[in-house]
Write a structure and sequence with these properties.
5-stranded mixed beta sheet, alpha+beta, Alpha-Beta Plaits, SatD, SatD family protein, about 50% helix
């Protein structure tokens, strides 16, 4: 069983493409090579294959990266399932994980939400999608500054608040306040719950 993230950039036409696409490519390269593990296509859409254990953290890494840039957001559909055909290009691979993710992104474009998940279990889908709807009330309203801090914490889990204060040239108390505003401890708990629910599939 694998996870497939299919997404598209919201408001991409109002931003400097070279900036966000370079940063997104650099992020995705941490998790595999293109076009086998990920691909950016049709201008502002992308797809990433990963393990089910990593999918929530990868989603948040992408979300925080894009939200740290002015006026941008991202829509993400998470598909969990099988990979029945593996191509040299992820966009030509197939299986329930790809179908679930691709169809779900179309649904998201119609219903106005920014993230959802489709697995092999209706019960798991119900529980995790309620969780994602609540979580997105926070994620969708991150400021650029909050998104930057969250992204650094996700990508470098050994970071201390002192490390972040130096990186962003702010006080440690400012770092602490941003992490509290972003409910970072709750995000870590949510990731653990997410992994536990998916492991039940």
């Amino acid at each position: 069983m694998i996870a497939v993230i299919t997404g598209d950039i919201i408001n991409s036409q109002h931003a400097d493409t070279e900036v966000w696409i370079t940063r997104l490519k650099n992020l995705l390269e941490n998790w595999g090579s293109s076009p086998l593990a990920w691909e950016i296509y049709r201008g502002d859409e992308f797809q990433l294959k990963c393990t089910i254990d990593e999918v929530f953290w990868h989603f948040l890494a992408i979300k925080s990266l894009i939200k740290s840039q002015e006026n941008l957001d991202v829509r993400i559909a998470i598909g969990i399932g099988e990979e029945s055909f593996s191509s040299e290009k992820i966009t030509e691979s197939n299986g329930t994980a790809y179908v679930n993710s691709g169809r779900l992104l179309n649904d998201l474009k119609n219903d106005g939400h920014t993230v959802a998940i489709k697995t092999t279990s209706d019960t798991v889908d119900r529980d995790l999608n309620i969780l994602l709807k609540w979580s997105s009330k926070d994620f969708d309203n991150w400021t650029m500054a909050t998104a930057e801090i969250i992204h650094e914490m996700i990508m470098n889990k050994d970071n201390t608040q002192e490390d972040l204060a130096k990186k962003f040239a702010i006080s440690q108390s400012s770092v602490s306040q941003r992490l509290k505003r972003a409910n970072y401890d709750l995000i870590v708990e949510t990731n653990q719950y997410f992994k536990k629910k998916i492991s039940e599939l």
